[in-house]
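thread from #wetlab-drylab

HS: before we spend reagent money on co-crystallization trials with zinc ion, can we at least see a predicted complex? here's what I'd submit
DV: go for it
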Amino acid sequence: MEWAERSQIEQRAKDVLVQHGLYSLPIDPVNLANLLGVTVHNAKFADDSWAGLIAKRGQHTQILVEQSDPPYRKRFSIAHELGHHFLHLLDDGEIVDKRVDMFREKQPTLADWSAQRRREVEANWFAAALLMPEELVRQQWAANPSVMALARAFNVSQEAMGYRVDSLDLEVASNVV
Ligand SMILES: [Zn+2]
């Protein structure tokens, strides 16, 4: 499998939103999934370390998220699974996501750059780009450079928005003014 550049993943996520008329705040990943014909369900996973999974069987793709997770986490989990849908799950199969894979977006170290880790990083990049599109983040940040305010506007956790702001170098840009 060819690995995607982060910029390609950003563009892919934006294209998907625009194509489905969902390029406005806050992004609704469940709505997007439904428009794609992907069903989303709450589940009670027996294993506490699981956060979500996606399974594809022929024309039917299903996403499950842990029902006890808070709404922010579920939104991120669904967006992450949609990343696997677009980038990795091209044939029948399933991907199970543990919390440790999903809720950290930082660049892995070289030693960590296994194929599986890379796949998870790509899905997290996609999730960040889907829920926090770069241009919309930049617009909002220009109006009000506050991670808390942006987290609210985009309906994501402050942690997720903090990573996003860092990865877009927005703190540096705001210091230039
Ligand atoms: Zn994953």
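DV: The first strand starts at residue 38 and ends at 43.
HS: ok that's useful, forwarding to the group
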